[in-house]
């Protein structure tokens, strides 16, 4: 697939993000998307062909591969990148809605359609919570599916139609495990950035509300 859409989406959101949000976009684009496209994809390219079991029993290798890799790590990583980036569409759609509303009414309804206030702030906060939730869900998925982020060199399989317990060998296990750790580390960084931005926005909004209330009381 072409990753141009994801790149354009992230670039569009960049206009409405805070400083922390722009760091998140840089981490996703440089340390996740580019690493996936340039290096990681090739590591898993022939994972099924290079998975070998010490038996010639028809169907045994396929069954064992499906058991140990129910979902390809690289496809799960691609799905994670897409799902985690999609909540940003909420912000883009909300800004587009504001701009369209101003055109329909032919008057200035907002000081700036992209200004982070009111409904747009709520949308942005929801998108941050969704992104954090998706990151955590995918980390749990990786942990459950791949035995705590491990890629063993040798696995034993005794599933039918294998005649007995056979040894199966995974190709490039060390390289795959390094990329898996890298994926986990970048996901962790993104979670920290999302939580930091969420806390920052809530704190700034609380301060703004307090100052408004205080100034009213003074009057």
UniProtKB/TrEMBL annotation:
<keyword id="KW-0965">Cell junction</keyword>
<dbReference type="Pfam" id="PF00029">
    <property type="entry name" value="Connexin"/>
</dbReference>
<dbReference type="InterPro" id="IPR038359">
    <property type="entry name" value="Connexin_N_sf"/>
</dbReference>
<comment type="subunit">
    <text>A connexon is composed of a hexamer of connexins.</text>
</comment>
<feature type="transmembrane region" description="Helical">
    <location>
        <begin position="21"/>
        <end position="39"/>
    </location>
</feature>
<dbReference type="InterPro" id="IPR000500">
    <property type="entry name" value="Connexin"/>
</dbReference>
<feature type="domain" description="Connexin N-terminal">
    <location>
        <begin position="42"/>
        <end position="75"/>
    </location>
</feature>
<feature type="domain" description="Connexin cysteine-rich">
    <location>
        <begin position="134"/>
        <end position="201"/>
    </location>
</feature>
<dbReference type="GO" id="GO:0007267">
    <property type="term" value="P:cell-cell signaling"/>
</dbReference>
<dbReference type="InterPro" id="IPR019570">
    <property type="entry name" value="Connexin_CCC"/>
</dbReference>
<keyword id="KW-0812">Transmembrane</keyword>
<comment type="function">
    <text>One gap junction consists of a cluster of closely packed pairs of transmembrane channels, the connexons, through which materials of low MW diffuse from one cell to a neighboring cell.</text>
</comment>
<feature type="transmembrane region" description="Helical">
    <location>
        <begin position="179"/>
        <end position="207"/>
    </location>
</feature>
<dbReference type="InterPro" id="IPR013092">
    <property type="entry name" value="Connexin_N"/>
</dbReference>
<feature type="transmembrane region" description="Helical">
    <location>
        <begin position="77"/>
        <end position="97"/>
    </location>
</feature>
<comment type="similarity">
    <text>Belongs to the connexin family.</text>
</comment>
<dbReference type="GO" id="GO:0005243">
    <property type="term" value="F:gap junction channel activity"/>
</dbReference>
<keyword id="KW-0472">Membrane</keyword>
<dbReference type="GO" id="GO:0005922">
    <property type="term" value="C:connexin complex"/>
</dbReference>
<feature type="transmembrane region" description="Helical">
    <location>
        <begin position="118"/>
        <end position="143"/>
    </location>
</feature>
<keyword id="KW-1003">Cell membrane</keyword>
<keyword id="KW-0303">Gap junction</keyword>
<keyword id="KW-1133">Transmembrane helix</keyword>
<dbReference type="InterPro" id="IPR017990">
    <property type="entry name" value="Connexin_CS"/>
</dbReference>
<protein>
    <recommendedName>
        <fullName>Gap junction protein</fullName>
    </recommendedName>
</protein>
């Amino acid at each position: 697939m072409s990753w141009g859409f994801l790149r354009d989406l992230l670039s569009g959101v960049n206009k409405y993000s805070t400083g922390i949000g722009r760091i998140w976009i840089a981490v996703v684009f440089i340390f996740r998307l580019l690493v996936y496209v340039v290096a990681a994809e090739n590591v898993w390219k022939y994972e099924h062909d290079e998975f070998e079991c010490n038996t010639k029993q028809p169907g045994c290798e396929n069954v064992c591969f499906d058991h140990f890799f129910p979902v390809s790590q690289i496809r799960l990583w691609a799905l994670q990148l897409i799902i985690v980036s999609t909540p940003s569409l909420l912000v883009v759609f909300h800004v587009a809605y504001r701009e369209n509303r101003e055109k329909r009414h032919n008057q200035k309804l907002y000081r700036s359609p992209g200004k982070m206030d009111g409904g747009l702030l709520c949308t942005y906060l929801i998108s941050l919570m969704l992104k954090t939730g998706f990151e955590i869900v995918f980390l749990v998925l990786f942990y459950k599916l791949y035995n705590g982020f491990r890629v063993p060199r040798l696995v034993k399989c005794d599933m039918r139609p294998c005649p007995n317990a056979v040894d199966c060998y995974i190709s490039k296990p060390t390289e795959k495990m390094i990329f898996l750790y890298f994926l986990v580390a970048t996901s962790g960084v993104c979670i920290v950035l999302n939580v930091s931005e969420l806390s920052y926005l809530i704190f700034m909004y609380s301060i703004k509300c307090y100052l408004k209330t205080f100034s009213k009381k003074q009057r």
